[in-house]
Structure formats: structure tokens, C-alpha cells
Specification:
The protein folds into 2 domains: 7-105 and 250-277, Leucine Dehydrogenase, chain A, domain 1 (Rossmann fold, 3-Layer(aba) Sandwich); 108-244, NAD(P)-binding Rossmann-like Domain (Rossmann fold, 3-Layer(aba) Sandwich). The termini are far apart. It is an alpha/beta fold. It has helices spanning 21-31, 48-57, 70-76, 82-87, 107-118, 135-145, 159-169, 229-236, 246-261, 268-277; strands at 7-13, 36-42, 62-65, 79-80, 92-95, 101-104, 127-131, 151-155, 175-178, 191-194, 217-220, 241-244. The protein is built from 10 helices and 12 strands. The structure holds 2'-monophosphoadenosine-5'-diphosphate (ATR). 2'-monophosphoadenosine-5'-diphosphate binds next to α6.
């Protein structure tokens, strides 16, 4: 009888204990009895590269990378996917047989698929507002622009970061950046995405009410098991649909899984199961 080889994967971050990735990937693997394991690795803050190399030397096939290591993973990769290249961040590492490391960023694809496939929300010709110009915001600009929105406005607490981010990607279409206060003159938006870390602090970004109308779809990329301040605000102000990042989390994981295993898992049963248990 031939021995089944269990191929090793993991997610590395700091902190990492609350990560749902092992559960999600475990469910993907179960769908086809895929012989893989998926663990968590608490990466020491000053030893990211050493920890990754050790995992690779021990036969690891791939890693998901989360906060605060996505930029370091980008630097470490020998070759980058199209999205990772411009995002400046990597959330998926592949350890190739020749010893080289491929880096991808599946966050933006996950967000787009959650909008389009799970919620049937098209982004084409829409006026999109992206709140936040940090790593999370930057990671989704290119995939958003590929949906051909009418425009993308980036608002950030530190307006210079939003202006710089808009300038970096303005070859892709109508992208502008500025402060939250600037939004008072910008009319209303069809899609409002929160990519700030404000939700983690239980804070609502200073978004003028004039940005939202009854057709607006509001999306908080954060997900922590209960509604965020932005989700409450969106409900209270009459958004047509209020979404959180659970779908994005599952979809970005599915894309990573497909890169590693060459097969796209089914996400709906996994999402349904997480909604029940979380
Ligand atoms: P991440 O990789 O999660 O995006 P980051 O690069 O530190 O992390 O960026 C955090 C984002 O959340 C930034 O856009 C930040 O605004 P600043 O650039 O002005 O720091 C935003 N942010 C954090 N706390 C916020 C708050 N309380 N209100 C509004 N924006 C906030």
C-alpha cells in the first residue's frame, strides 16, 4: 500500500491565535479528501524571514501571510503575481520545487468575488468610495479598478496618504484621494468600502452622511464576529445592503487554495457553516 504524503501549509501572523484560516482550509481539504495539513504559526516580530525559511526547509508547501508581515513577504518572494506586484503586499507564498518562492495577493480577488458572486453586486459604472489608504486599502485598488467603476475616491484620516495612493494607481482610471472632510463636496456613492483599522478600535470613520443614499452598498472589510461601527452606521443611515468581510475572508482563502492545489474549492458551504458557528 502506498503511503499518503500529507503536504504542509500554514498561516503566519502576529497575533495569530484567532485566525479562522485553519478551519476554512480544513473544510476546503475535506471537500475532496485532499491530503494536506494547515496550521498556525506565531511569527516572532523580528524573525519573519527565518521562520518562513525554517517552514520551507521542513517541507512546507505554502503559507498564508497576515498582519504584520505582508510587506516582508512581498520582499521575500522571488517572483510576484500581477496583483501582489502593485499591492506591495503578499498574503500567499508558494514554495516551489526548485526552492524559489512565489508570492501572490488574493485579498482583492476575494473582495471582488464576494461582491459579484456571493452578493450579485456589480461594481461596473459605480461611484466607489474607499475609506483607508493603508495596506488593506492599497491591496484592493487594482482589482476594484479592473471592474471599470465610474470613479474611485479614496478618503483617509491622513489625506496625504490617500492622495499618494490615488496618484500611484491613476493610470488605471478615475482615481482621486483626499480627506474625509473633502467628501462633503463629492456627492453620494453607490459603493462604500471601509478598509481602515477604525473598526478594530470600535470607531466609525468621520464619513459625512451625504455620501450615502438608499441605493448605497456598504462593505466593511473587517470581520470580527459581530457588526462593526461602520455596519451599524450604514444600517442606521439607510444603506440598501450592509456587508462585512467574512465572504472576502473565505474567497481570498479559496483563491490561495487554488494557487496551491490547482483546484478551486466550493466556498458557499464553508461560508454557510461559518455563519452558523461564528
Ligand atoms: P492596514 O494594513 O490594516 O491597512 P495600516 O497600513 O496601519 O494598516 O493602515 C490603517 C488604516 O486605517 C489607515 O488608513 C489609517 O489612517 P491613517 O493613514 O491616517 O493612519 C486608518 N485608521 C486607523 N485608525 C483610524 C481611525 N480611528 N479613524 C480613521 N481611520 C483610521
Amino acid at each position: 500500500m502506498s503511503k499518503v504524503i500529507i503536504e504542509k501549509y500554514a498561516v503566519i501572523g502576529n497575533p495569530i491565535e484567532h485566525s479562522k484560516s485553519p478551519i476554512i482550509h480544513g473544510m476546503f481539504a475535506q471537500q475532496t479528501d485532499d491530503a494536506m495539513s494547515y496550521d498556525t504559526i506565531l511569527g516572532p516580530l523580528d524573525e519573519f524571514v527565518e521562520t518562513v525559511k525554517k517552514f520551507q526547509q521542513e517541507g512546507g508547501k505554502g503559507l498564508n501571510v497576515t498582519v504584520p508581515f505582508k510587506e516582508q513577504a512581498w520582499e521575500l518572494a522571488d517572483e510576484l503575481s500581477k496583483y501582489a506586484q502593485r499591492a506591495g503586499a503578499v498574503n500567499t507564498l508558494v514554495f516551489k520545487d526548485d526552492g524559489s518562492i512565489f508570492g501572490a495577493n488574493t485579498d482583492g480577488i476575494g473582495l471582488i468575488r464576494d461582491f459579484k458572486v456571493n452578493h450579485k453586486v456589480s461594481l461596473t459604472d459605480k461611484r466607489i468610495l474607499l475609506m483607508g489608504a493603508g495596506g488593506a486599502g492599497k491591496g484592493v485598488v487594482q482589482p476594484l479598478m479592473e471592474e471599470s467603476p465610474a470613479c474611485l475616491v479614496i478618503a483617509n484620516r491622513t489625506p496625504e496618504r490617500a492622495t499618494a495612493l490615488a496618484a500611484e494607481f491613476n493610470d488605471l482610471g478615475d482615481i482621486t484621494g483626499g480627506s474625509f472632510n473633502d467628501l462633503r463636496d463629492q456627492g453620494r456613492f453607490d459603493i462604500i468600502i471601509n478598509a481602515t483599522a477604525a473598526s478594530l478600535q470600535g470607531i466609525m470613520p468621520p464619513l459625512p452622511e451625504s455620501c450615502l443614499y438608499e441605493e448605497s452598498v456598504c462593505y466593511d472589510m473587517m470581520y470580527g464576529g459581530r457588526p462593526t461601527s461602520f455596519e451599524y452606521w450604514s444600517e442606521d443611515n439607510g444603506a440598501s445592503l450592509v456587508l462585512n468581510g467574512l465572504g472576502m475572508l473565505v474567497e481570498q482563502a479559496a483563491e490561495s487554495y487554488a494557487i496551491w492545489r490547482g483546484r478551486m474549492p466550493e466556498t458557499k458551504p464553508v461560508l454557510d457553516s461559518l455563519l452558523v458557528t461564528w
